[in-house]
Each structure stands twice: as C-alpha cells, then as structure tokens.
Amino acid sequence: MNLIWNYISFLIHCINFLVVAVSEKNNTFNSNHEGQKLFKVYMNSEKDVQALKRIEEKCQDCIIQWTDYFAQNTKVILHVKEDSVNEVRDDLLKHNLTHEMLKDSYLDVVKKERNPLRSPQHDEFGYNYAKHNGFGAIRSLLIGLTNKYKRISRLEIVECTIEIRPIYAVHISNDWSNTKPIIMIECGIHAREWASVEACIYFISVLLKQKTENIKRIMDQYDFVILPLLNPDGYVYSMSKSRFWRKNRHCDKQYEMCDLNCVGIDLNRNFDINFCEDQSPQCAATYCGSKPFSEKETQAVRNILKRLQKRLFAFFDIHSYGAMWMFPYAKSMEIPRNYEEMKRLSEIAVEAIKKVNGSEYRVGPAARVVYTASGSSMDYAFDVINVKYAFAIELREANINPLGFIMHEEEIQPLLEETWTGLEACILAMNPYK
Ligand SMILES: *[C@@H]1O[C@H](CO)[C@@H](O)[C@H](O)[C@H]1NC(C)=O
Ligand SMILES: *[C@@H]1O[C@H](CO)[C@@H](O)[C@H](O)[C@H]1NC(C)=O
Ligand SMILES: *[C@@H]1O[C@H](CO)[C@@H](O)[C@H](O)[C@H]1NC(C)=O
C-alpha cells in the first residue's frame, strides 16, 4: 500500500523525474576546479567583518563561495578562483586580516572528504550511514525503511522541486491514533550542510528501530514528522558542482541575469516572517527571493506545518555548522514566550552532548548567538504556527582538522550518535501539556 501510494504521489508531483535522473549520474567534481584554493579567515573584530565585506564587494568574481558567518569571533572559509588567488591574498594582507591559505587545493579537500572505501557493515538499502550519500541512495533508503517498518511509518512526497526531485516527509507513529503531540524535524534546508541531512536520516532510523527503552517511551508519547532533505536540488549541486553551495537552484526570473551565484534562493530567508528585512542582493548566498513562499521547498514546509498545526508542538531545524543549540528569535533581539523553558531544554541537550565526548555547544536565542536573520523556518513555526518549542541547531564541526562544512566520513558516525543523545535528552525533558 505504502509503495503504491508512494508511486502514485510520485507521478502526481514529479512526473518528469526520469529526465532529471539521467543528468544526475555524474557525482564527481571535475578538473575545472584545479587551482582553486581555500582560505581560512578569522574574524577577530567587527572591523574585520567590515573589511571582509569590502573585499567581497571589490571582487565579486574572485570568490566562488564563502561560509556565512560574517560575524565576530568566527572563522570564514573562502573558496577562491584560480586566477584570483593572489589578488585575494593581497587584499587580506592589506586589511590585516588573520588568515591562512590551505596547503591542499579545493579539489583535494573535496575529494578527500569522501573516502572511496566502503564499510559494508553500515549499508542498508544501498545507503551507508558512515558515508556521504548521493540523492539516489537517500531515496532508496527512505523507501526501503518505510516499507520495512510500514506499520509505524509512511513516506510522503510533499512537493516536487523545480529540478523535479521529490521533497520527502517521513511520518512516524506507533499507533496512528492521530491524537499524540507531533514533533517535526527539518534538515538540509541549506545545500552544503550535509551533516544535517545525515542527522535526520539517522534519527529516522533510530526511531523506527526502537532499540532502547528511552526511544520506546518517546514513541509512546509522540508522533514524528521528519523532512530529511528539504533542498535536494541544492544538495545534488553541492555534491557534484560546488561544495559550498547554500541556496536552492531556482532562477528568479524577475532579474535578467541568473548565472553563477545569482541562481537560487536562500530557503531559510523565504518564510513569511519579517520577510526580507535583511535585504541581501540576488547574487548573495542569503538572497530571500522575490516574495514570501516563492519556493516549492518553503511551500512544502508551510503546507505540512499548517496541516499538522493542531497537534504540532515542537519544531527542530537542523543545520551545520557552529555547535549551537538555538531558539527564537532569529529575526530580532526580542525575548520570546517560553524563553525559560526553551533555554532549560537546550541546556539539557547540550549537557547530554558534552557527556558523550566533551563537545561544547552554545545556547541561546539565534539573533543573540549568531546574527539576526529574517524569514527563517524556526521563527515562522514559532510565531505563525504557534508551536510551543522551536529550535535551530547548528551541529559541531569535525574533531580532526575542523573545516566548516567539510566532514571526513570517519567522523560522521560519532557526530550523529552524540547529536541523537542530545535530542533524546531534550525530548524526554519536554512537557507538551504544561
Ligand atoms: C564524470 O566527470 C568526470 C570528471 O569530469 C569524468 O572524468 C567522467 O568521465 C564523468 N562520468 C560520466 C559518467 O559522465
Ligand atoms: C594594518 O596594520 C598596519 C601596521 O600595524 C597599519 O599601518 C595599517 O594601517 C593597517 N591597515 C588597515 C587597513 O587596518
Ligand atoms: C572525542 O574527542 C576527541 C577530542 O576532540 C577526538 O580526538 C576524538 O576523536 C573524539 N572521539 C570520537 C569517537 O569522536
């Protein structure tokens, strides 16, 4: 039944999928990237932040992508074009920015991230929990798992992207009584945040397998809706073309030009909550789009949130990286309702994570912990849908040679296990009725 339904909804939403599937085969970065370099730049002061912004504006074509932490006390990674390496290095020196150029080229770094040796003990339905998996393997795992555990799970195709990939939601309930409070988890809103996608997939597998008493208890109390990969087009692009891609792949036609970085909308700025107050230009990594919910991906989240609104009480948006357990608001410094309760739950989560292997997470309202950001899914779920608890979690970086989004495959498993430990502690400490 599940399979047939899945197939029908697939036909309805993603009729042209086969066309795309053909063009998706090549999963390797090509040699055009030879000579491109990565710089680590340390932001020691607000002055540094402003200096880096000026460098970026001066030579918009030099830097292919940069990580988004234009904030004090963070490290920004620049992916620089071959013929701009000297210019960028000179600019960094001129502005006295603390920086280093990585010895390995961009291509070496992204190749080393994925180890070609497979460890078969982690394989399930063609997906490997100890690897970075392509879209096809993710799809096959989701179909496989929800079929194997069909008594307690259902796979829904919520929407289809402009490149005609399905956006999946996995519904999990051990009784389908439709009365229990729902916890919703969203992953992969930003293309390059692979660890986030892996986290959701791991959570799905843990919940379905119910190997411990704690997980059984959680499943008796709650239903789950998990969107493991909200931005599949961006994800595929990040895997095959440009590792640090963040947005989706929709060309916003209100502008003439839509090449290179100017393609795409930052989905986590596209929700109808203080929309576009940050005013990023179209070609920026944080471009909010032409109007709220202009994108299929954000429509998918909105539609699910609205459909489940009555029973939905907790919303998690998982990101990578930064080691932060955050809650509203992102849009302003305003203190949210349930502040004390969300702070308490966050502290319980990060305490549990720390106990596993010492990883330290920061806790607090997103605007205070990182920077203000309008149009986020967390604020929308909290203010418009009115969930009791909303969180945005930035997973930590790798332990060995931390390099932002880059996560060597042997580091995936420990990260996922400790993240689940934190999430489990947080959920066990919740009270949906109080
Ligand atoms: C994929 O891309 C690589 C690098 O450009 C190329 O060597 C290889 O032949 C391509 N494979 C396919 C199946 O197109
Ligand atoms: C960089 O540092 C040097 C020496 O301390 C100073 O003379 C110069 O003005 C600084 N440049 C900028 C852009 O801050
Ligand atoms: C635990 O943390 C240490 C220090 O960061 C690290 O070297 C080690 O690899 C970690 N162990 C696991 C299993 O992640």
From TrEMBL:
<dbReference type="Pfam" id="PF00246">
    <property type="entry name" value="Peptidase_M14"/>
</dbReference>
<keyword id="KW-0479">Metal-binding</keyword>
<feature type="signal peptide">
    <location>
        <begin position="1"/>
        <end position="21"/>
    </location>
</feature>
<comment type="similarity">
    <text>Belongs to the peptidase M14 family.</text>
</comment>
<dbReference type="GO" id="GO:0006508">
    <property type="term" value="P:proteolysis"/>
</dbReference>
<feature type="active site" description="Proton donor/acceptor">
    <location>
        <position position="394"/>
    </location>
</feature>
<keyword id="KW-0862">Zinc</keyword>
<keyword id="KW-0645">Protease</keyword>
<keyword id="KW-0732">Signal</keyword>
<keyword id="KW-0121">Carboxypeptidase</keyword>
<keyword id="KW-0378">Hydrolase</keyword>
<feature type="domain" description="Peptidase M14">
    <location>
        <begin position="131"/>
        <end position="430"/>
    </location>
</feature>
<protein>
    <submittedName>
        <fullName>Carboxypeptidase B</fullName>
    </submittedName>
</protein>
<dbReference type="GO" id="GO:0004181">
    <property type="term" value="F:metallocarboxypeptidase activity"/>
</dbReference>
<dbReference type="InterPro" id="IPR000834">
    <property type="entry name" value="Peptidase_M14"/>
</dbReference>
<dbReference type="Pfam" id="PF02244">
    <property type="entry name" value="Propep_M14"/>
</dbReference>
<dbReference type="GO" id="GO:0008270">
    <property type="term" value="F:zinc ion binding"/>
</dbReference>
<dbReference type="GO" id="GO:0005615">
    <property type="term" value="C:extracellular space"/>
</dbReference>
<keyword id="KW-1015">Disulfide bond</keyword>
<keyword id="KW-0482">Metalloprotease</keyword>
<dbReference type="InterPro" id="IPR003146">
    <property type="entry name" value="M14A_act_pep"/>
</dbReference>
<dbReference type="InterPro" id="IPR036990">
    <property type="entry name" value="M14A-like_propep"/>
</dbReference>
